[in-house]
Amino acid sequence: MKHFYTISEFARLVDREEFTIREWCQRGRIRATVHFLGRGSRREWRISHEELLRYRDPGLLPPKTRHERRGYYTLAGVARRIGHYVKAISTWCRGALH
């Protein structure tokens, strides 16, 4: 058993194309980390064995929203994540800006 798999190894294990696995990594559908190789700009995705087991049981993670992929959230998204009303979040944000 390996601790981490490359894109090609993971693709072989789950019977998918490498391109598909790479897209899932980039879109956050499976948990993977990027490792830079050597001094250059070459990088390699690594997927843990735990993620392989998680993928085999329930499948892919839910797709991220456009804002989550870009690294920011809408006001409604923040309210939903922390369990408050949008009006309360709006008030807090206005207070923080002054």
Task: Report on the architecture of this protein.
- With 98 residues, the chain is an alpha+beta fold.
- It folds into two domains: 1-63, Arc Repressor Mutant, subunit A; 65-98, no CATH class.
- Helix content is 52%, strand content 12%.
- It has six helices and three strands, in the order βααββαααα.
- The protein has a three-stranded antiparallel sheet with strand order 1-3-2.
- A hairpin with a 6-residue loop joins strand 2 (33-36) and strand 3 (43-48).
- The radius of gyration is 18 Å and the shape is elongated.
- The mean pLDDT is 81.
Report the average pLDDT across residues.
81
If you consult CATH, what is the topology of the largest domain?
A: Arc Repressor Mutant, subunit A
| CATH architecture type of the largest domain | Orthogonal Bundle
The low-confidence runs, each spanning 5 or more residues with pLDDT under 50, are none
Q: With helices defined by DSSP (H or I, 4 residues minimum), what is the helix count? A: 6
